[in-house]
Amino acid sequence: MSKFNPVAAPHTHSGTSTTNIMYLVVLALSPAALYGVWLFGVPALTVLISCCLSALVTELVCLQLQQKNWRQAVDGSALLTALLLAMSLPASTPWWVAAFGCSFAICLGKHVYGGLGHNPFNPAMLGRVMLLICFPVELTNWQAISLPELSASGLVFSQAWMGIDGVSAATPLADLQQIDQWKELLLGQHAGSMGETSALLIALGGLFMIWRGIIRPHIPMALLMGLLVPASIAHMINPEVYASGLAHILSGGAMLGAFFIATDMVTSPTSPRGQILFGAGCGLLIWLIRSFGSYPEGVAFAVLIMNASTPVIDHYLKPKVFGSQSVFKRNKGAQ
């Protein structure tokens, strides 16, 4: 009798890993994060550090309680969640609020469902919504930018930049229909969260991920179009009430949501058609919440709502199985 040595099926492998993907996303987001620190100073840096430390500590505790390998804490997923949450918070957020939100995101947004790959909702956005509901005052106190000034003696840092005496300002989303300074929106020279600091840098980071094959362009393009089209139509009907589509895209967390949040591989659909529907739904919900809701920003709520619909989208828009009868009959009929 012949002896057979069964081996694994001849599947192809991209040569990358979950850890590599996570750190590449962190790398793509880093320029916008560092630019946010440059604009807002020490308070923004405090928020970033608080979120990162809280995420790593919570990750280690959860792994220990589940008796899992502690090395999973440095696979980049917790760091990415911390960075996304920090980017969605105002720079003036107290450090303990940011730390609490990140612990909530890691523990109840990720590990309570079984850890990485099992969470139905984006953990960072779950933490963001929880903080907005529990700490509405702290999360709606927007710090004005305080750029360092170059003098003959070198860089001069203001008290606001050092976190001693900050000045509050209104975010552009508070009066969206009055926005006409496109340069300020592109470069992020206005009050807001660190994720609203530069639509240009965030878009470049997103294009980098598409180039590296980390994400596909279906969700970002569908989200931006789902936001642009209804906003543009409403603006044409009543420009005095509704902001233009370009203002919606360049302001708030639209760019961050399109390239870094809605594209989460775990909580978004897998098929191209499903991703287009998912992204378009996010964009439409963002416009509806911004235009008619109680909150000026709607990215976190829109993404979580569409996260809940991901299983349904995957069920009805999943691709046909290779070799299925329906595909065979369609191909035979075409001949």
TrEMBL record:
It is a multi-pass membrane protein. InterPro entries: NqrB/RnfD, RnfD_bac. Keywords: Cell inner membrane, Cell membrane, Electron transport, Flavoprotein, FMN, Membrane, Phosphoprotein, Translocase, Transmembrane, Transmembrane helix, Transport. It is found in: Cell inner membrane. Its EC number is 7.-.-.-. Its cofactor is FMN. The chain crosses the membrane at residues 21-41, 47-65, 72-89, 191-211, 243-262. The complex is composed of six subunits: RnfA, RnfB, RnfC, RnfD, RnfE and RnfG. HAMAP family: RsxD_RnfD. NCBIfam families: rnfD. Part of a membrane-bound complex that couples electron transfer with translocation of ions across the membrane. This is Ion-translocating oxidoreductase complex subunit D. It comes from Agarivorans gilvus.
